[in-house]
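pinned: reference chain
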Amino acid sequence: MSPPDSRNPEHRSSNSMIVFCTGAGLCALAYFLGVGALIGALISGGDPALVVGGIFAAIALGLTTVVGFVLMLIGGIWMIGQVIADQSGGAEEKRYRDVER
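pinned: its structure tokens
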């Protein structure tokens, strides 16, 4: 049995959902780590090494949040684009409409 020559026209990629969920996961991770960093800074007692570490953690968590938001935005736009493309009705979809059931 040989593999099919062309790709199934009904096959859709789930990459947009993966990108969106990765972004949402990064945002959630940054939130939970940020809460932990805040609690750690409050109970540190003013140790300079912990204060500097907290500053670097805040910068890293802020960047993680921004990257997560951008990934969510890209994934969301990509999903909307797929929905619009599915509604357009290309030639490969029209051949299925003529089939008698």
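why pinned: The radius of gyration is 23 Å. The chain is about 75% helix and 0% strand.
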